[in-house]
Amino acid sequence: MIDLRSDTLTRPTAEMRRAMANAFVGDGVIDVDPTVEALEQETARLLAKQAALYMPSGTMSNQVAVRVHCERGSGFLCEAECHIYQYEQGAFAALSGLIAQTVVGDQGSLRPEHLQSLIGPDSDHVFRTRLLCLENTHNRWGGRVIPQSELDAACAWAHEHGLQTHLDGARLWNASVASGLPLNRMAENFDSVSVCFSKGLGAPVGSALVGSHAFIDEARRARKLFGGGMRQAGIVAGGALHAIHCHRERLHLDHEAAQQLAAVATHDSPLSIRGGSVDTNIVVLDVDPNWGRAGDLRDRLYDSGVSCFAIGDTAIRLVTHLDISREQVERACRILQSVTSSAGSRV
Hints:
The chain is α/β, with parallel strands linked by helices. The chain has 14 helices and 13 strands.
């Protein structure tokens, strides 16, 4: 089976396993785990922030960020298709008593013209808006790299209106490689950024939240509250540290494989690329309704040896990653051609 469901499927390489086995550890809740500390310092350095905090997951990183930025009963602005809103169980409301005000953007991007007039008046009758959340790359828009000029403009608007800014940068590593921009440039206008080690970088566990010293001090308290304090976490942090040192430069291979899949999948077929282009390692393909439903296509691909996700009734998602070889990409292309050239479920 060629498994293209997600880049979270990667398994540690032999070199990563050795780094994990040899990691120095301590109690990261009582005081310091030295490998976790090294990972946090390196992540903060790469993103040019004062401090970082290692977390079990990207969901926790995002939820800790919105909790620290906003007081209970206040709210934040976010793009309607973003991960924080779509895939985190409404945790901002359940755990922190926050309100999400969703905004329909342009292929995952929010510009000032989308945001004007969305901050309520200073009134006893409305909630206070405290934060703007953005996402890069954008998951549901096919791993799209949001143009830096648009991110900069949205952050400038937010700061002018007294809002804090948070970036869900789970795949910011991919965005940096694809755009050629350094990580610190992509993060510089955000008050906090979440990055993930267990997606494109191939580590088994964890994300990190970066920001100012004061912000991370409060985030550490929230992590403990959410049950995210980890003891000898250096064993898994060692894998993440290895990943940011050794796996970032190879991300372009995943992007090239995604381009290859997209080109074959859309050639004389009932499929089209969501947003018109593939920027990184995620390929979201809209299915012509005259051919059939996304679930039908997913099932046919699975029966032929390719596993992917259906996104609702209308699209499938393919994700390339460290554990997919060049030969598997070529075989997946042949399977896509074969399956989509056959009659669909409604024909």
